[in-house]
Amino acid sequence: MSSGTAPLWVSLEESNGSSSVAINTLLAAMLGAHQQISDLIFSPGRVPQLQSRGELIPIQAPVIRPLTADDTRRIASELIGANKQAISTLREHGSCDVSYGLPGVARFRVNVFIQRGSCVVVMRVIPTVVPSLTSLGLPPRLHEAARLRDGMVLVTGPRNSGKSSTLAALLDDINEERVCHVITLEDPIEFLHNHKCATVHQRELHSDTPSFPLGLRAAMRQAPDVILVSELQERDTVEMAIEAAETGHLVFSSLNAPDATKAIERIVGFFSTPEQIGIRKRLARSLRCVISQKLLPRKNGNGRIAVAEVLTMDAQKRKQLEDNEYRELPAARTASWDDMDSGIAELVQAGVIDLDTALLHTNNPERLRFVLDTRPAK
């Protein structure tokens, strides 16, 4: 951006942008170029790119040229639209998240960020059909989490491990079977849930509520049975989510953590040392289960498959959590049906993933080898 150019966020606020028709035509063309597209990327100095099956692919066409900073600014302006809060967030923090819909084709989770004074746009493709637990390849017993009446259910895993899809599948399970009121707080809204048995109201951060804590406080006055918070990112959100679970609501959320132990450690770590005794006791009473998952590349190169384990709280585990012995929780789950290594071993035996992939993604290679050696061949 030249020295005489107005600040980026001013350009976004004042720009007419390219027409939505032109943007939508470009997006539709990119989506039609390959199968299993996960992301679209617009970066200055590059032609538009897409990511498919883990490979970054430039769009090849006679009329396609490398994008300029003005191009990506106009694209960002069109995608952000009239969302002043998103522009403010971009100005203050250097990035913002919004959702965008291509009618009848796809929805996107859009991240706009600033690098060297120019805009980069990354668009995560969200399937138009809400996934089921079965379609995601997750353990059938996860249906039990959707049938809980109160408490907190956490879905954990590293970034891009499918946590949002799992939350959507759990919510759809409730929507299919239970007459209840559901409120979601999302940043941004990804999967769209139609009313089925349940009445589902989805609220997006910034456009529908200024913050997760305020959205949660309001939700508890809006007569929900189920509350979904897309992610626990800071102390106030965690405290309000626990309070909602304590007061008879069923609360679902996600956390970037590799397993249940690290998830609990992160939650406790949001609070000062004097507060941690109390928060462990509250969490022990309200936490029902922790679902930890990963996405592993398939052996045939056709995408990735989820593998998960579920830590279900019982009296012993609650006592361990209260007594600050939550690091001992994994010892109680190693022989259970839903152990991560058992799930990975099943995928190896079924020929879905190869052994090298399995050993790379397990937290305990020796245990995985033991499981494979002692389990009967299929």
Overall description:
With 378 residues, the chain is an alpha/beta fold. It has two domains: 8-126, Beta-Lactamase, CATH 3.30.450; 140-338, 3-Layer(aba) Sandwich (Rossmann fold), CATH 3.40.50.300. The chain contains 14 helices and 13 strands. The protein has helices at residues 8-14, 20-31, 69-80, 84-93, 143-146, 163-177, 212-219, 235-246, 260-269, 273-286, 315-322, 340-349, 355-361, 365-374, and strands spanning 37-42, 49-52, 55-58, 95-102, 106-115, 118-126, 151-157, 181-186, 199-204, 226-229, 250-256, 287-297, 304-312. The strands form two sheets. A seven-stranded mixed beta sheet has the order 9-8-10-11-7-12-13, with helices on both faces. The protein has a six-stranded antiparallel beta sheet with strand order 3-2-1-6-5-4. A hairpin with a 2-residue loop joins strand 5 (106-115) and strand 6 (118-126). Helix 10 (273-286) packs antiparallel against helix 11 (315-322) and helix 12 crosses helix 14 (365-374). The N and C termini lie far apart (60 Å).
Report the average pLDDT across residues: 88
The CATH superfamily label of the largest domain reads P-loop containing nucleotide triphosphate hydrolases
CATH structural fold name of the largest domain:
Rossmann fold
Euclidean distance between termini CA atoms? 60 Å
Biggest sheet features = 7 strands, mixed
Strand content: 15-25%
User: Rounded to an integer, what's the Rg over CA atoms?
Assistant: 22 Å
Number of H- or I-type helical stretches: 14
**How many strands in all?**
13
Given the helix and strand composition, which structural class is it?
A: alpha/beta
Unreliable segments (pLDDT under 50, ≥5 consecutive)? 1-18, 332-337
User: What is the overall silhouette?
Assistant: globular
Q: What is the N-to-C order of secondary-structure elements (H for helix, E for strand)?
A: HHEEEHHEEEHEHEEHEHEHHEEHHHH
CATH class of the largest domain: Alpha Beta
Task: Give the number of domains.
Answer: 2
Helix percent band = 25-40%
CATH architectural grouping of the largest domain:
3-Layer(aba) Sandwich
Strand order of the largest sheet: 9-8-10-11-7-12-13
